[in-house]
Specification:
With about 900 residues, the chain is mostly helical. Helix content is about 65%, strand content about 5%. The longest helix has about 35 residues. It is globular. The chain starts with a helix and ends with a helix.
Length: about 900
């Protein structure tokens, strides 16, 4: 009985201790121990396992400055979702089952980190803020605030980040561990803000509190890289040395030694020899068999510093062929080749193709890839037009020859290609070492300098060429000599060679790719339509290449050559006015005879915007010119609709003379043509419309001009047009007001608005008159926004004054998707003084057809009705 009594007492004590409501010493001790060593401990272990896996799966790119923090890998996080869920459940149990333990706040911290890693950022923020307010443990509060700071930086919430930094700066007794994390997070903050000095300063402070030698090694490596980029070679050399401490991974150690050579002081030729020998030793070291491309690449950069461009290019080509463990390095190699060919030789074709190769090794979402893609836009255009000119010129030259001469050219081309393949085979032929066993072989000439057929690449290439000349491109099969065999349909009876069986396969495939005489002759144009097409393409490419060379590539002399060729070879080109203008600018830059093009424009194209520009070279430009020309346009437009056509023409003329080349120019010209239609004959009206269609770049305005031209065409001319519906694109106030005043007569009682994904769209910003007055710089800010974010879209801004509200319209967008892209970018990035967030959030996009419906009312209520439709149909 005594034993049972004692056991009952123990059970009662434990039962009482299990209660999470009674806050006694026994209860607290029980819950502290249980929460710590059961739920919290296991939750923390599982979380650390995922963090370790993220770290291990990350491949450091030592050719670039290492990031302060290793980024979260969403794929790894997703793959460990079960483990993270288990950690979440355990942490939740520590909170629910052990409410009075001192590990509750720590468990909340685990939940906050889990939400952070799984991209539940709002939940993570709320959890971290709760801990900061409620926790009585300073270390945990500091740790939480530091993690919250990193989250703010990730999200780009720099105002909140600044507030958190300021708050932490006033906190005292921050532990060394937390100070280390704080300074690392500050470095991350400066990294995101692009403050290079801030990163270096914060990492220097972090090292003072580092307790992990491997992490300290990585920070020293980052500091060394940053000092090297800033030109502080002595400091960089010192920190590369420090990065070798702490038993770093072999690859980091390799790069630290490699880069240390780049920043070492070289004072004499013997030092150069020492460095070159160092690179040779690295290359020969078996441990670096997967880093040979890096060694040669860095050697190339070293030789470039010594001014040996030829050797640099040779080494870069070698590096591209060497094995390597990091594909991105190949991308950097090709990028460097592109830069050298561009800067040293102005070889735009080679640069373009090297950049293409670079992109095959770098992920398209990588910032470097984005930079390369942007860099090669002009080069892509250059190569396209350059190669089209070369190809079309050759085809037109061949078209002018007799059939016999064409055949001779084709035969000579094939012969030259065959000779090239044979010479390449000779270059690749490697003499084999003579072996004592060669004499024992049945074919004793298979040693060095062998003429044995299957060991002789030249003989195999020649054999493949001879076979092709005699029999054509026949598949590998039995009875291949049969003359009646169907070569296209017969399947080979001999199996295809395997990947490893490369004997002769590559050479045979190259020979089979050679064209036949018939193939070459078939490509030569032999009809007037084909020749006309080639000439049209040449005309376009001469102009576009000349324009590209002048504006983007700054090759003024080459630009003049192409533009003068256009004017000379295609005197009736629709691009001639702009070509004259570009030639005028180019000759003016070079101090040449620019006046000849002024004379040509005034004589041949008196109504062109380019003529107005050369006649008034000191005219205003930029935002002020755009705003002022918009005002003139509105006055001229109102005069046109009031029937005051001559007044309208005078206003347009003065606007074009004072502001000749703005984004309003083309619509001013179209309004002037509309005046011509009212004051002059049909012949002159039609002539001006046709010229406008040929010379205008804005597709929306071209479509509108075509609609205006259709009533002037005869039935025969209309019959020649392709039958299609031509929509009037709403890109100017001309279209805006016509849509507003000439809306359709559809019955809108049931469904006033319809979603049409492929219809032309516009963006609408509606506000009350007082709000419009407050946003004084709206038009100028919109223009800057378009120039920065949509430079190639030719967006235009207009306003409509016949509504109760102020309505601003941006157009054209060729479909709903492009309009939604603009809408989202506008909400995210556009800022203008006096423009409230409420007005921005009330903006919308709308199709031309729906805008016609909306324009009937011009009431605020109709705008609200459409906004309801917009939210349901476009989001």
């Amino acid at each position: 009985m005594r034993i049972f009594s004692r056991l009952a007492i123990v059970i009662l004590l434990f039962s009482g201790a299990c209660s999470s409501e009674r806050n006694t010493f026994t209860n607290r001790t029980f819950h502290n121990v249980t929460a710590h060593f059961n739920a919290y401990y296991l939750a923390d272990v599982k979380l650390q396992e995922v963090e370790t896996e993220v770290f291990q799966n990350y491949k450091e790119d030592y050719t670039q400055i290492l990031p302060v923090f290793i980024p979260f890998d969403s794929a790894t996080i997703q793959a460990n979702s079960e483990k993270l869920q288990s950690s979440r459940e355990l942490a939740s149990k520590a909170i629910e089952w052990h409410k009075i333990s001192k590990w509750v706040d720590d468990s909340y911290y685990i939940l906050g980190k889990l939400d952070y890693y799984q991209s539940h950022f709002d939940d993570a923020q709320n959890t971290f803020k709760y801990i900061n307010v409620n926790s009585k443990t300073p270390d945990l509060r500091h740790q939480t605030l530091i993690t919250l700071l990193r989250l703010y930086v990730d999200q780009g919430e720099f105002e909140n980040a600044n507030f958190t930094i300021d708050y932490l700066s006033k906190e005292s007794k921050i532990s060394e561990k937390n100070r280390y994390e704080l300074y690392r997070t500050l470095a991350y903050y400066y990294e995101k803000r692009g403050d290079k000095s801030g990163v270096i300063g914060a990492l220097d402070k972090a090292i003072e509190y580092s307790q992990n030698k491997k992490e300290e090694s990585r920070i020293n490596f980052i500091l060394a890289q940053r000092y090297q980029r800033e030109g502080f070679d002595a400091l960089a050399h010192e920190y590369y040395g420090k990065a070798l401490e702490g038993n770093p991974p072999y690859e980091r150690s390799f790069y630290a030694q490699l880069y240390a050579q780049q920043v070492a002081e070289l004072n004499a030729s013997k030092d150069l020899k020492k460095v070159r020998k160092y690179y040779d030793d690295l290359y020969e070291d078996p441990k670096n068999k997967d880093l040979k491309d890096v060694v040669i690449y860095e050697r190339a950069l070293f030789e470039q510093k010594q001014g040996d461009t030829e050797l640099t290019l040779d080494l870069l080509h070698q590096a591209a062929k060497e094995p390597g463990s990091n594909p991105r390095v190949k991308g950097y190699i090709y990028q460097k080749l592109a830069v050298i060919n561009l800067d040293e030789f102005h070889d735009y074709r080679a640069s373009k193709y090297y950049l293409d190769s670079a992109l095959t090794f770098i992920n398209e979402s990588d910032p470097v890839a984005i930079q390369i893609t942007s860099q090669k836009e002009s080069l892509d255009q250059y190569v396209f037009h350059y190669e089209r000119i070369q190809g079309n010129d050759s085809l037109l030259s061949l078209a002018s020859l007799t059939p016999d001469e064409q055949k001779l050219v084709a035969e000579n081309y094939i012969q030259s290609e065959e000779e090239r393949l044979i010479s390449e085979a000779q270059a690749l032929q490697q003499p084999k070492n003579t072996s004592i066993f060669d004499n024992l072989l049945a074919f004793s000439d298979r040693g060095s300098g062998s003429s044995f057929y299957f060991d002789n690449g030249v003989a195999m290439q020649q054999g493949a060429i001879d076979f092709r000349r005699t029999w054509g491109n026949r598949p590998l099969q039995d009875n291949w000599r049969r003359s009646a065999v169907s070569f296209q349909s017969t399947e080979p009876t001999i199996p295809e060679p395997s990947e490893n069986d490369s004997t002769g396969t590559e050479k045979e495939s190259l020979v089979s790719q050679l064209p036949t005489v018939e193939d070459l002759l078939a490509n030569i144009p032999n009809s007037p339509e084909q020749i006309e097409t080639l000439n049209h393409e040449l005309e376009e490419s001469y102009f576009e290449l000349g324009k590209l060379l002048y504006f983007d590539l700054k090759e003024t002399v080459q630009s003049i050559d192409y533009l003068e060729t256009l004017v000379r070879e295609y005197p009736n080109s629709s691009r001639k006015p702009e070509a004259y203008y570009l030639l005028y600018l180019a000759q003016k830059d070079l101090g040449g005879n620019s006046q000849q093009y002024v004379t040509g424009l005034n004589r041949e194209y008196p109504d062109s915007q380019y003529t107005f520009s050369v006649n008034n070279p000191d005219a205003a430009s930029g935002n002020l010119a755009y705003v002022e020309s918009s005002k003139r346009y509105e006055i001229a437009y109102n005069a046109y609709y009031a029937g005051q056509y001559q007044t309208s023409k005078s206003i347009i003329k003065s606007a074009l003379e004072e502001f000749p080349l703005t984004r309003n120019t083309e619509r001013l010209l179209l309004l002037d043509i509309m005046n011509t239609g009212q004051t002059e004959g049909r012949v002159r009206y039609r002539e001006r419309l046709e010229n406008y269609i040929q010379n205008t770049q804005d597709e929306a305005l071209v479509e509108l001009a075509r609609i205006m031209l259709k009533p002037l065409l005869s039935e025969a001319e209309l019959a020649e047009l392709n039958p299609k519906d031509i929509e009037a694109a709403d890109s100017t106030q001309v279209e805006n007001k016509e849509l507003a005043e000439n809306g359709g007569d559809e019955d809108l009682s049931e469904s006033p608005y319809e979603y049409n994904e492929n219809s032309t769209h516009i963006f609408v910003l509606a506000m009350e008159p007082g709000q419009a007055d407050a946003a004084k710089n709206l038009l100028a800010d919109l223009e800057n926004f378009h120039s920065k974010n949509f430079p190639k879209e030719r967006l235009r801004t207009g306003n409509m004054n016949k509504w109760e509200n102020a309505i601003f319209i941006i157009s054209p967008f060729s479909n709903a998707e492009k309009a939604k892209v603009y809408y989202n970018e506008f909400l995210k990035d556009f800022k203008s003084e006096g423009l409230s967030d409420e007005v921005k959030s009330n903006s919308f996009v709308i199709s031309i057809e729906n805008f016609q419906v909306l324009s009937k009312s011009k009431k605020l209520e109709e705008l609200e009705e459409y906004r309801t439709f917009f939210k349901s149909a476009y989001k």
